Amino acid sequence: MNPSENMNVVSVAEGELGLSSPAATFEEPASVLRRLAKDHKISIVSAIIIVLFVLGAIFAPVLTPYEYDSINLSDRLAAPSLAHLFGTDEGGRDILTRMLYGSRVSLVIGIVPTLLSVVVGTFIGMVAGYHGGKVDTVIMRVADIVMSFPTMLLAMVVMYTLGGGTANVFLTMVLVGWAAIARVVRAETLKLKESEYVEAARIIGVRQARVILRHILPNCLPTVIVLFTLEIPSSILTESSLSFLGMGVQPPSASWGLMVSAGREFLYHAPWLCFAPCLAIMAIVLAFNYLGDGLRDVLDPHLQSQ
Amino acid sequence: MTQSTLEVSHLYTSFFSERGEIKAVQDVSMRIGKGQVVGVVGESGCGKSMVARSIMGLIKKPGKIVSGSILLDGQELTSLGENELCKIRGKDVSMVFQEPMTSLNPTMRVGLQVQEVVSIHENVSKEEARQRTLAILSAVGIPEVKERYNAYPHELSGGLRQRVMIAMAMVMRPRLLIADEPTTALDATVEAQIIALLRQLADNGTSVLIISHNLGVIAQLADHVYVMYAGHVVESASVFELFDNPLHPYTLGLLRAVSSLRSQSKVLQTIPGIVPNLAHLPVGCSFAPRCDKCMARCTSTQPELVAVGSGHEVRCHLTKRVDAQ
Fold it and tell me: Which residue in B has a C-alpha nearest to residue A222's C-alpha?
């Protein structure tokens, strides 16, 4: 697996999103689901895969008879069999079990920092877009600097100065993640600011904070939701890359990136060590990307008309 | 006309762009009495909407009110800050847009959008705000208000949405309602209903400033009319006087350009040319380049607004001369 290549794929998807303009109409979640089911079956499959992963992470102790850190040297590097569906690693630990426990780390790191970035980015983007002028210029230049800074390098700086561990992985990802969101939300706000209903809200005497919260934020949400689903895979990949480089989650905790990193040494005579976590990373990243694409198609009236 | 609700005097509004100062409104004065309907007509880009925005305090940067005063029942609006303006907007002065299709927030139920106005301006219970919302919605002629209250804008027709907009503008019983081309996006039957509704509001004591390029709408509604061209008021008269005895060549041109079923001509009369660029206005009368009665004086000196009868004022060298004789 090459994490950086995969990340490029994700950022291309974001670029497309930035160009297209989002929903101008509002609809109930149930109706969104119905339309997804009708025109985007792959998104529904993706959603099911995501739900399965989440359930697997939650019920890991029930689903597997093994412990994720119990070493059993008699079973070292066993090939996949009925007893060990994905084989065992160099310590004789069941790979499926480690994957299930590892998905806790990977999913939490995929979702929580992304959510934080989305909240922070949306807020900053709306303020920049609505205020304009100097506030906008300063915020957007900072965002440009953040986005032009290599993520991995920044992550390494944070990890070396503050130490590894989950909290610092979160921190790094929010530090980097808000900028892309803020940019898109700012563009969206600039457009919504000129819309007649925001003007109308001002005409009836609605104050600025309320205009932003009641009239701009809800109309940005379709875009923000799509951005969120498309950002999750890039966060999962970042976590995998950091763990692969030994700067993320520390053993004996399991994470998919860590497992790929550990399996690298045995790539020739026990390829299943890498194979299983790579497959999991690929599956979840593709699932989130397809779901994001589907949501974008359904929520974006401009794409619908084509 | 005893006391005027709105009194605009010598208003100048400009936009300061890289290409220089764009004078959108120049020396505009108007009065609107209580319960009076005043129309503003003119082509696109002649400054009609800018007058409305100046009154609402909604001129965006790089534009600003350069000088002049706007008095609402004696209160000066041009010197107020954004916070004070927020208190007045929606409560004392309201505005209806020309685009009912896009002027409502698509993510909010229409009832709540109307109710928002009440809850912003008055400290009332939710239930009372709701009752007042329902009352105003039925007052503007929306059937089955209880169901419509919970509807989203996309579930309503254009006519109903415009009624919701008018309800939003009217729920606080403002002293002045500005209607900026309120019927342009609507079909003829709905237009007639909206006009009747505005007339009814005026009869109940609300002063209405109606902006339109549709002379038919103005003729039906307005008591007094201001004709604007390139940021200036070029003629001002009562509606009967204006239609019976138009004096400014531009007003004549506008009236000629209205097609009539009885018209003998097969060709629609038009005014040649377009509105001049507001950044590079001609030296003399701004209508001179398009005027068929243009004289040497017209291209050198700007005419003054002169009274030619009771409540009838014209900005044209021609009338000045006629008047002097």
Answer: B107
